[in-house]
């Protein structure tokens, strides 16, 4: 059990690191300046294919793999209860959505690059569809992740295994994630992402430092 909690803590820190890496890549490395909409989207995908692929791999399949470990570690950390099972289900669904979103983005970019020369119009329509699907699966609406974060924070607070400040932080940002399902609140997704960096980092440290008798 102690070993699993340590793996969970390391996984939480890895997820936080993936978010930091993603923000750094899309804000500081992958530059969209000079690319207009339409044909510019395709040129952007072709020029930035390698960097975008790297960013997607880290942000989605790698983060989702770490999330699977964390979900199980946190499920084992709290007393058996029906709510624990509910939280684990939402965590598993969230991990699956992250895997799917990453795979759609990676496959979609490859398809666009292949179509760009011979069928530019089809490449544009393909990229528009890929972007919409990927946004819906993992990025534009954070309802599933928000529910999991809020539930886990509530349960760990009730069990007394994390500081109350950490639990309230998780419940707050979980609620922010849930609110992104409302169209007018879609911009909250960036706040949710920043909140996840704080929450995953914090709970990762707690798990790594917790004595085996506690977690």
UniProtKB/TrEMBL annotation:
The keyword Transmembrane helix applies. The chain crosses the membrane at residues 12-30, 50-74, 86-106, 126-153, 165-182, 188-208. It comes from the Bacteria. The keyword GTP-binding does not apply. Keywords: Membrane, Transmembrane, Transmembrane helix. This is DUF4386 family protein. It comes from Erythrobacter ani.
């Amino acid at each position: 059990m102690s070993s699993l909690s340590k793996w969970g803590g390391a996984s939480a820190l890895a997820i936080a690191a993936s978010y930091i890496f993603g923000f750094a890549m899309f804000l500081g490395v992958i530059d969209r300046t000079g690319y207009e909409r339409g044909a510019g989207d395709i040129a952007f995908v072709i020029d930035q294919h390698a960097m975008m692929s790297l960013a997607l791999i880290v942000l989605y399949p790698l983060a989702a793999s770490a999330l699977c470990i964390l979900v199980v570690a946190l499920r084992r950390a709290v007393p058996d209860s029906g709510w624990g099972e509910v939280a684990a289900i939402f965590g598993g669904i969230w991990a699956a959505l992250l895997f799917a979103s990453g795979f759609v983005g990676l496959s979609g970019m490859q398809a666009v690059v292949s179509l760009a020369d011979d069928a530019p119009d089809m490449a544009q329509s393909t990229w528009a569809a890929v972007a919409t699907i990927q946004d819906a699966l993992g990025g534009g609406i954070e309802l599933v992740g928000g529910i999991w974060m809020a539930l886990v924070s509530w349960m760990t607070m009730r069990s007394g295994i994390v500081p109350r400040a950490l639990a309230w932080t998780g419940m707050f940002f979980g609620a922010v994630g849930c609110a992104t399902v409302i169209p007018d609140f879609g911009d909250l997704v960036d706040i949710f992402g920043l909140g996840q960096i704080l929450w995953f980092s914090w709970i990762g440290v707690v798990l790594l430092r917790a004595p085996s008798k506690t977690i």
